[in-house]
């Protein structure tokens, strides 16, 4: 817990390993045992057939809510499933208290289909600033950690995204058209140009990790849910990357962003993708 006037940075210096352990334990207890073993009654639809939730999502989020809250008394937890049940709980992100932002299974569709491209995302924020994040892909045995000002690491190895290779098409993961407005579809058409190779995204958290590793060049996303973006955006920043909305401003986890937005492996690529999105199909 934060003691007296201890800052979040001081808390993280003492408890980052405890957070990592909480994430690993929740996945081991609630997610991994259900991977490729889900029964039909353990899978439900939320808003439609492409928006799934499983017992693994629900139980892992409850596990993390209890564990993270115990580590940092007085903090709030904003989890995807809790917000689905009570949308007003999302407002904690805009408050001044420390807040844990949790996506228990990012890439639920992949998880349901037995694909290993899913992860657990946890970020710690305060006053709209993300201070640390954990991206855990249990089926791949990968854990990425980022601390603001302290770098990004994958399994203990420092990540540096670096600029894209000259002369190669930019690899950009984009929102699926089913989840975009007509205006956003038009903006995404701006990526259909020479020198850019857009493709539909998978798990947002793993797409951000691919950018931080330099395996992908950028994302172009059209939704704001903080549990999908908070962890990955810090990971990309600390690996040397940048993020911009379609109007050229950094993305804010508190909302009110002009969409779509991009996260890229370097600032020049972020500016290029944001400019193409601003130009749309014109």
TrEMBL record:
Give the EC number(s) listed in the UniProt record: 3.1.3.25
One of the Pfam families matching this protein, by short name: Inositol_P
Keyword Membrane (UniProt): no
**Which reaction is recorded as catalysed by this protein?**
a myo-inositol phosphate + H2O = myo-inositol + phosphate
Keywords, ordered alphabetically: Hydrolase, Magnesium, Metal-binding
Gene3D superfamilies (UniProt xref): 3.40.190.80, Fructose-1,6-Bisphosphatase, subunit A, domain 1
- The reply on keyword Magnesium is yes
Which top-rank group of organisms is this from? Bacteria
Q: Which InterPro entries match?
A: Inositol_monoP_metal-BS (IPR020583), Inositol_monophosphatase-like (IPR000760), Inositol_monophosphatase_CS (IPR020550)
Enzyme class at the top of the EC tree: hydrolase
Q: What is this protein called?
A: inositol-phosphate phosphatase
Organism field:
Streptomyces actuosus
